[in-house]
Amino acid sequence: MLLSVYGDSIAAAFGLPPIKGFVPKLASSLATSTGRYTNYMNFAQDGMTSWDLAGALEDQIDWRDGLHAAQTVCILIGGDDLIHDLPILIQHASNHAVKRALATSRAAYFSLLATAVAVKNRRSRIAVGTIYNPFPNTPIAAEAINLYNEAIIEPTASQFGIPIAPVHQAFSGNEPQLIKGYSNGVAGPSGRSGIRYPIHPNAEGQSVIASVFAATLASSPPTPK
């Protein structure tokens, strides 16, 4: 059985040995639950946004082959969309600014799921994960991430009949235990694209993501084409 995963630095296990990431942990969990050896292909890349992924699934033959060959496909994307937008949102904090910043992400997320459903084989299943908030003590970050989950990921996935792994729920209130180098939960000043680390899961956080996807997939039938 083949598991193919698409996403950003979280799915790529940034800052950890690859074997500590959620992808090999999820493959092991699927092998245990199904009794079938599960190989995996991890297409995640550091810095990948939803629009980057939408383009890759359209243009990259090996990425499309990974979709078609897999029996299980997991997608965890969106955090880097917000990393690009958050410095502006912090400076001009308003609900209108948040919605305007996410307009491009909404179209991209629809496009990448439409491609995934069209290319996958008819017996495979897809699951998508929500994104967690590494800055729970920054109100505009909480608002933006909640809106991304509630206005982009959840309705778009539901439109395609794709189950949703509630990663954000598993992390909420547990950030100090699950985020590598967690400090005070406040989005800092300068750093990568204007936002300071830490944002990535530690090994325990990666295990939690694997468990959330495994639980979501346990009762998931093939995704309709």
Distance between the termini: 20 Å
Query: SS-based structural class?
Result: alpha/beta
Q: Give unreliable regions as ranges.
A: 190-195
Radius of gyration equals 17 Å
Q: So how many helices?
A: 9
CATH architecture: 3-Layer(aba) Sandwich
Number of DSSP strands? 5
Number of domains: 1
CATH T-level fold name: Rossmann fold
What's the helix-strand series? EHEHHEHHEHEHHH
Approximate shape: globular
Please summarize the sheet with the most strands.
Answer: 5 strands, parallel
Helix amount: 40-55%
Compact summary:
The chain has one domain (2-218): 3-Layer(aba) Sandwich (Rossmann fold), CATH 3.40.50.1110. The longest helix has 25 residues, at 95-119. The chain is globular.
